[in-house]
Design a protein that fits this description.
The structure is a homotetramer.
Chain A: E1 10-15, H1 20-29, E2 35-40, H2 51-54, H3 65-68, E3 83-86, H4 90-102, E4 106-109, H5 134-142, E5 147-150, H6 154-170, E6 172-181, H7 193-196, H8 207-218, E7 221-222, E8 227-228, E9 233-240, E10 247-255, H9 262-270, H10 276-279, E11 289-291, H11 300-303, E12 312-319, E13 325-331, H12 335-351
Parallel strand pairs in A: 1-2, 1-3, 3-4, 4-5, 6-9, 11-12
Antiparallel strand pairs in A: 6-10, 7-8, 10-13, 12-13
Chain lengths: ~350, ~350, ~350, ~350
């Protein structure tokens, strides 16, 4: 287990704490060994109310008692937090997150606002923990004492973990990705029920662009002042379906050096291990990838809880008539694909010494 | 309107009439201008009961009165029918349909049993009405007075109509197809509710093989004694989602002669017309393809009823980073993709003179 | 058929036309024999746009062409309409509907704003067409040239039709009513999908009060200056379930003069006919009540379309251990329980001569 | 904590282990402090296979490793088990459970087969632990060394706990109960998805009879040779809705000695404690009843996990215009209402000394 454990816990704020992702941060930080929530921020409507009053709690486990009594404050850096988890909408994140970074905070953001910036890492600890080296450049360029780190879009998350394992072993040339995404990905109130009962919505605004970009950044190389995208091209179709939690992605991939036998790809996926610095963090899933062999798996209702929602679940590995392999990837979108991913990133930053 | 109209109606049987697809045949043949149902066949459990007694009706319009009183008979050719619509399971169809063909019946089958046979056409009147020329070969080779014609698998149906329009204009090289299929495609009782509520099943047995084969047969060339498959390769992922009716398919396609502007592909889709012999049949959808321009369409709940469920609905035409174009196709799986498709085929056969 | 038929059609406005109920008005007034839509009103956000631009159409049949081109206007009486169908929210209806009534319009309202007023009828043509006699009092008291008529809440609608048949035959003392209501009853965007997928919401604000009051007003007596409520007491629990359209209500009833055999109650329900003045109007369902005998009916998906959504569907009539009878009532909430009910009311008013 | 704890664990069999309820037994007995599974029985189709091979696992947590390797055996008493948990269908339970009782086993059954027998208790440890005194009579009358104890039907379970608290305080005269039941209550494959998507089924075979009988037996008095039913009459409507787990029941109740203020009823519910012998058993929920004060609670998706699925959740306590009070009760149907209930019963039997 990681080194930090015995020290006093690090004071953290949750920005945009009353929304669906904010609630997940509250839930997942309950009794966290390293982090202690000291502030919950919200919009004008919520400020001054207790969290219990301000928040329409939508999770299936009760709100922790400690959270209910915290008075919601404005989204402005205070004196106590050293780390801020951001569940802000992108438009607000663009303004607010830099204020926290400037004030010396480490910002671990779930927002998309800065993911395309050349000096901001999109981070998955199992995939690209070395990408945090860009933070020196980020601080210098922007004159910040703190910094911003982002986790990828919820759909990019699981597929990038699986693609990383395959890229390491066989190289990646082309990726087709078609998602079947859960309604919780749109937040609350989010998708109107009339739009999704007995229905599919074959469109999620801005999502295909993210899925075609973010994995290439994470699978690429960090350099002194930016990132070189991975060479693989990605084509994405993104769909909303009547699932509460868990994004399913159908992938077809072309390798640079295809294995003679797909069983080898299966072994590569099942055996993938995180870099040492990420492997033993409190939120690290073990194993990183669950490879299911049932012909009809993974399924979101049955398989989204692997690794307490932090694991990547893969199944249906089989040949593709056009490219080399087909597979299906499942990842919990509000745990691993949102709050849990940010927390795992923060643990990595602690371990790497960025929070001293 | 077509020529047959004024003659007495052709007596037809529905084979396997008590199941979900059988019920659609009954519903769609109610007051059909050319066909009159004279027999409804069923399994041992149903024989001797009236259709009203034997059938657990699952459609949202009431069972026609004339059908409720018909006594269910065994699936054996009788003396009166000249045309048999088959809603049989594949395993039973393999035995029973040839008996009807031998007895002189035209069999229009929704079953998959004979779709791969080199002398059996898989038929969509808007796509390949000329493929019925193989029936001479079929009769001669098998010594039948009648013949068997099939309609494609419900997922192949809509995508093949759209691909035909594109192939005619630009040629087709590669097709990626990922389906989000309705539960009614599995019949009744079909998919257990525990398997699909808050869930996706990323697997439908045998379906991907059908979707990778049947469109190529329909888009290919009929020859004296068989078919030459279209050269385009197809890669398919098939998924079950919580939708009652309407299969959605995400397509990425590579053209042989790509248009300089995708708007041209839109005009080709919207302007596609059926061959003259198919265009004015009673079940012909007009237009053949509805091209929707809303950014989030087609959607099964909203758009499956276009053309009374017989039309192909296309939307989200846009560039693809790997191939040339992405699009989304929707087709009503139990109307166009099953019973309605068989009936439209039968109308074509009448028009072509195969039922004299 | 009713007398009005050959005259020129009456010009009508739809107030609040862009919402879900407003859309139903547009759909159901398409090709109406008596009424012609001349104005569609909306909120500031919509005014000046065409209806096609302003409206997020959520119905499963396409928007009529004539409607798409109408420019949305403010909700203020114009010079042309003689009849206004109101799909306004209650808070806006309270201000706007009197302006139309004052200007001489007949207002047929789906809003709850005036249902509790002693001089405003809550009207179901099969149940209480005589209640329109209060309109003389309403005009005089309020100094209006026109008037306001309301249709009941969607949950009260079907149960009141069934209760009317039973009250006429056996008298009514007590009614227990537990509803399972469709999401469309909450409008659009209405119920968030996260609140209803894999869930039940046992609460709908203000609904139980309506269901405990409105049927008693309709089943009561009209007097010169008000209404005497029916003596039966009603206890209601109202629930939201994952159904798109169709409200199901479980009823237990105590009669004043119970039949010796419940089969007699069945005959009374199945044989119930509307008063003569209501029976042949264009929107009149025939029969008024469909009595289903299957042990598991009515069901919303299968049975909501009886009488084009205007009929009341009843099933599961059986003894009650505490009161006299249990039954289940189904009614289409956005057709019969909203726009269709208002239109049927307007037809009655024409037939009664209130629109000369 | 209870006395048994330090002894070696009691060997138990699960009868009918491959079905949905059988799987819950396996899951809930994983690492149980008192019980150790030594046999899993199944039908001819499963016998001789390992449990992993024979079982289509439908739960959302993985099958325990120890269970996967057990070879499924016939449903016949063996030499090792002293306790048998029965997840058998009623028709098979009627034959098989007596064989186990005769062989000396304590049978804790989820089946309905013996619930109506005058010498078989229907048991909820928080409600009627004293009812096990009938077992002496049962053994003597039937000549068994063991005995059969049943848990109630899943819908009766939660409502009986709430009614017990109210009966103790105020007496009970009349109860109206309308259920909205989860699909998992019908087992697997159970409810076809076409029957429940966008639908309600207002009928569950045999269910209303159970709900009108079982609570009265549990709320009644045990005597030397049978039970005196509680005097309260119950009227039940039972419905199936699109919920995976958690039965919601709307209750209206008439008291013998109504409280002057319903807040007192709230205090009675929230403060209800199990009899001392049941209060500290391993599966005992603490508190017994969660009283929720949110206006729209309980909801199955949000509240079914209270007390690890063993608690009774109550909300919406309010006056009733006909009787005295309305309330809503939620209970987890496959945990508390099935396997978990049987296990809690078995713990009570151990504590009472019936398993020595």
């Amino acid at each position: 287990m990681a080194q930090h454990q015995s020290n006093p816990r690090i004071p953290v704020s949750i920005l945009g704490a009353t929304g669906a992702v904010g609630q997940r941060f509250v839930q997942l930080l309950d009794r966290h060994p390293w982090f202690e929530v000291v502030a919950l921020t919200g919009s004008d409507r919520s400020i001054g109310q207790t969290y219990a009053e301000a928040c329409h709690w939508v999770l299936t486990s009760p709100m922790p008692d400690w959270a209910g009594g915290i008075v919601v404050t404005p989204t402005q850096p205070g004196s106590s937090e050293r780390l801020a988890f951001s569940a802000l909408p992108a438009s607000i994140a663009r303004e607010a997150e830099p204020l926290y970074a400037q004030a010396g905070c480490a910002v671990c953001s779930n927002a998309s606002a800065f993911r395309q910036e050349p000096d901001v890492p999109v981070l998955l600890p199992e995939v690209n923990p070395d990408h945090t080296s860009i933070l020196s450049c980020q601080r210098q360029r922007r004159g910040w004492k703190g910094f911003i780190v982002t986790n990828p879009n919820c759909t990019s998350t699981g597929m990038t973990v699986a693609l990383k394992a395959l890229q390491d072993a066989f190289g990646l040339e082309k990726v087709f990705a078609v998602s079947l995404q859960a309604i919780s990905g749109a937040g609350y109130p989010g998708v109107p029920s009339l739009d999704i009962l007995d229905n599919v919505i074959p469109y999620i605004e801005g999502e295909e662009e993210k899925v075609e970009f973010e994995p290439r950044k994470m699978l690429g190389q960090v350099q002194a002042d930016g990132f070189q995208l991975a060479k693989c091209k990605i084509s994405a179709h993104t769909n909303r379906v009547a699932v509460s939690e868990g994004h399913t992605v159908c992938l077809s991939v072309e390798f640079s050096r295809p294995p003679s036998d797909l069983a080898e790809a299966g072994r590569v996926l099942a055996g993938y291990s995180a870099p040492a610095i990420s492997a033993d963090l409190p939120s690290a899933p073990r194993p990183v990838i669950h490879l299911l062999t049932g012909p009809d798996r993974p399924q979101p209702r049955l398989d989204r809880q692997f690794g307490a929602g932090m694991a990547t679940v893969v199944g249906r590995l089989r040949p593709d008539p056009l490219l080399h392999a087909k597979l299906v990837v499942l990842s919990h979108n509000t745990v691993r694909g949102a709050a849990g991913g940010s927390i795992y990133n923060a643990e990595l930053l602690v371990q790497q010494g960025w929070l001293v």
